[in-house]
Amino acid sequence: MTRQKTQQPTDRELQILRILWDDSPNTVRHVNEQMNKRQKTGYTTTLKLMQIMTEKRLLIRDDSKFQHTYKPAKSEEKTQKQVVGDLLEKVFSGSAEKLVMRALSAKKVSPAELTKIKKMIDKMEKK
Amino acid sequence: MTRQKTQQPTDRELQILRILWDDSPNTVRHVNEQMNKRQKTGYTTTLKLMQIMTEKRLLIRDDSKFQHTYKPAKSEEKTQKQVVGDLLEKVFSGSAEKLVMRALSAKKVSPAELTKIKKMIDKMEKK
DNA sequence: ACAAATCTACGAATTTTTTCGTGAAATTTA
DNA sequence: TAAATTTCACGAAAAAATTCGTAGATTTGT
């Protein structure tokens, strides 16, 4: 009896979403090729995952042609927000500040990006 | 034959780490009670998880007394950095800026915290 | 000291996630 | 148009993560 408040996409599902956010609608073939850049994955494995994701309403399939195409059902923003929100609660006790700190230390961020982030914060402060 | 570059703690494992980061070393009982605040979990379930985590070297156990106590093997910082780094690659194509944006929009952040974050960025910029 | 309560060890069941083989249908190529 | 290729459907195996029951050891309370 395990229940998640919000049914999070699994690891593999997030990888597929990442690929389709960058370029969709797209085919199983394309997704599988991208997957293989990071991790060897059989074609039918990717196909099956995408079929399951379609059942779960994570993807929308266009099967009007023989070669089906898929696209994410929810926006990149919405899903990312959900994923980050979940991590926030689970690992950072809800402290966005902590999460931001870790994000900035996890990866070198260019000065230009740092400036962008500051500007974004300025904007938030005005509201 | 699935291999993760860095063996990430699972969902349940992160929950346990979160509890122990806040207060450790501590007992199975305490961890289990905390777990139950969010999700009903049997005592032996928590015990088993913590035993497995000890085998995996995620936790360190003190079994010098009858009631064992556990503490995280790695620092909160190190593990969080790893988790965030993984999410960064998987979901944000390595863009910390994007992740920060999502973190800030996922949860309302207090003005004081926003200022803190800006100060931190200023510090990073100087280096 | 005895009974009740608490705790750990252990194995196994269950659930979830991931992987893939096979066969049939459609398409492409020779 | 026949053979080779590509694609999808389906079921099931394999792997990973989670859950829990039972038994035996230790401690606590009476």
What does this structure look like?
The structure is a homodimer of 127-residue chains. With 127 residues, chain A is mostly helical. Chain A folds into two domains: 11-72, Orthogonal Bundle (Arc Repressor Mutant, subunit A); 76-126. Chain A contains six helices and two strands, in the order αααββααα. Chain A has helices spanning 11-22, 28-38, 43-55, 76-92, 96-106, 111-126, and strands at 59-62, 69-72. Chain A has a two-stranded antiparallel ribbon. In chain A, helix 2 (28-38) crosses helix 3. The first copy, chain A, is elongated, with a radius of gyration of 18 Å. At the A-B interface, helix 1, helix 4, helix 5 and helix 6 of A face helix 1, helix 4, helix 5 and helix 6 of B. Chain A binds a DNA duplex (30 and 30 nucleotides) through residues 1-2, 10-13, 27-29, 41-45, 47-49, 51-52, 63, 66-68.
